[in-house]
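quick q for whoever's on today - can somebody do inverse folding on this one?? i tried earlier but teh output was garbage lol. tokens:
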């Protein structure tokens, strides 16, 4: 079994599939065209280490839907976390609140970094660091400097 199959089976185990996936390649194109609202569903300490440029930190444990009150319910939204489990939960909350175009980033920030797409730190500077969440989940992060 290759790594992609393993990630797919892991996501099938933990996710319901209620939120459609988008690929890191699709998100990168949307990001470059300013066509998407990117939400980071990781905790603040993870976001500070690195995040996708332009992402809005919404967190997971303390997620508050009101942070998105100023956005159109039709706006395309891509939610991500480390690999795509927490982000599905946030995506479901968004859809229940009336957002119509919500997608989950397949493989999360780990897959983004594995494809060598750029990340920024809390100051907005380019970084190679990624918060690896935990030793057991870090095996999905193949590139970048793992931070715990």
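ok took a stab at it. sequence:
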């Amino acid at each position: 079994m290759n790594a992609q199959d393993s990630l797919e089976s892991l996501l099938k185990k933990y996710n319901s599939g209620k939120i459609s996936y988008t690929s890191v390649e699709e998100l990168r194109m949307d990001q470059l065209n300013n066509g998407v609202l990117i939400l980071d569903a990781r905790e603040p300490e993870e976001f500070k280490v690195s995040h996708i440029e332009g992402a809005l930190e919404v967190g997971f444990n303390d997620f508050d839907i009101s942070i998105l009150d100023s956005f159109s319910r039709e706006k395309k939204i891509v939610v991500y976390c480390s690999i795509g489990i927490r982000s599905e939960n946030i995506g479901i909350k968004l859809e229940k609140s009336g957002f119509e175009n919500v997608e989950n980033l397949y493989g999360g920030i780990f897959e983004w970094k594995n494809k060598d797409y750029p990340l920024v730190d809390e100051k907005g500077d380019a970084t190679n660091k990624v918060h690896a969440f935990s030793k057991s989940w870090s095996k999905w992060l193949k590139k970048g400097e793992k931070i715990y």
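fwiw The chain has a mean pLDDT of 95. also The domain at 3-142 is CATH 3.40.250.10 (Oxidized Rhodanese; domain 1). so keep that in mind when u check it
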